[in-house]
Amino acid sequence: MRPFTICALLLLKVTFGDACASGQYTESGQCCSLCPAGFGVEVECGKEDTKCTPCPQGTFSSSEDLGPCLPCSGCPPSVPTVSSCSATEDTQCECDNGFFFMRDYGLCAPCSKCSRGEGATQQCGLQGDTQCQICGPGTFSEENASTKPCQSCTMCSDSEVEIRACMPNSDTLCMDKRLDILSRPAETDGPHGTPLWPGGDDVMEGRETSSATGTPKFTSQDGDGSNNILAYVSVLAAVVLGLLLYVAYKCWRSCKQKKALSKARAAELGTSPEGEKLQSDSGVFLDSQSLQDNQASKGTKRDSKLDTRLYINLPPHRQEEVERLLQEGGGRGWRQLGAALGYETEQLDLFGRGEAPSHTLLSNWAQKEGSTLGLLCSALARIERPDVVTALNCPMQGTSVV
């Protein structure tokens, strides 16, 4: 009989609007109380009501709920702290513009952008990533943005006609009802009301005569239309001719550089002792420059494990060269290096959303303890990138062929 009474009491509370905020009840039918912000659950609701306790130092609770106090998070060394953790708020970390702090991974991730047809309900910042919502009736969004909300649709005025209705990804398209495409110029467009063409009076008289007979008389404009078409065709032909000349010049210059490069390599093979020896022994020509590169890469592989220099202490121009090589690496670029350094796929996907993922990866890795050149060279060797190892250990050199 007692369970039936409790159920009836709960139904009456819900029916008359006295709903329970926590959604849980004690065995006697009393609504379980929520712990306020800054408090955590000490004894869960059951036979008796919820018992709450203040969050101790190092923990927080930012809202009313039935959960315990959560441990405070900390900002990485490279991310400044906006506000320290309190009983009601977690630590606030400030990232650069276009990034937000991801607490699960302890790093600054690029902000998401709302696509066309969606508007930002929460801007990316201290509160987290961008929150997007599909634009409802009467609103639209025509661009990918992380800060702009949905905008109100334009209403066509009385002097305009609606060509296209407003949609979530495009605004209303209106057009003026009075178009001058088919209208003829007035006969007294000249100054002081004088006719625009010579003999305007005759034209006016002829028009009045024609209108009296019921047949309208129109002025021919075929000459002006032909002149406009000829002008457009001439401009288009000039643009096409200019493009063809530019492509021909680029092809000629590329062929010239390739020929000069082949001559230079042939001269190197003719003067290199290693090239002559291999040529005389086996009859096969080998590029001496390739042999030097292979020897240099082997030397760097042997020495890289002993290199205890920190990557963060490299000169900026050397870091930029490494980032550029990894960005252009294709199938053996920054993503494969990140996997070799121990990053998870979710973290690499976050880096890939930015404009310079290789810079984001190496900057984040450089903040970790033990980020030496030896470890980096070892990871580069595993993904078969000796060119990047060479860029790390040798000064940048360039060869130009004239």
From TrEMBL:
The keyword Lyase does not apply. Gene3D superfamilies: 6.10.250.1780, Death Domain, Fas, Tumor Necrosis Factor Receptor, subunit A, domain 2. Residues 19-52, 54-93, 94-132, 134-174 form the TNFR-Cys domain. The chain crosses the membrane at residues 229-249. GO terms for cellular component: cell surface; plasma membrane. Residues 1-19 form the signal peptide. Pfam families: Death (PF00531), TNFR_16_TM (PF18422), TNFR_c6 (PF00020). The keyword Cytoplasm does not apply. InterPro entries: DEATH-like_dom_sf, Death_dom, Neurotrophin_rcpt-DD, TNFR/NGFR_Cys_rich_reg, TNFR16_TM, TNFRSF16_N. It is a single-pass membrane protein. It is found in: Cell membrane. Residues 184-221 are annotated as: Disordered. It comes from the Eukaryota. Residues 209-221 have a biased composition (Polar residues). GO terms for molecular function: coreceptor activity; death receptor activity; nerve growth factor binding. TNFR-Cys repeats lie at residues 19-52, 54-93, 94-132, 134-174. This is Tumor necrosis factor receptor superfamily member 16. It comes from Scomber scombrus.
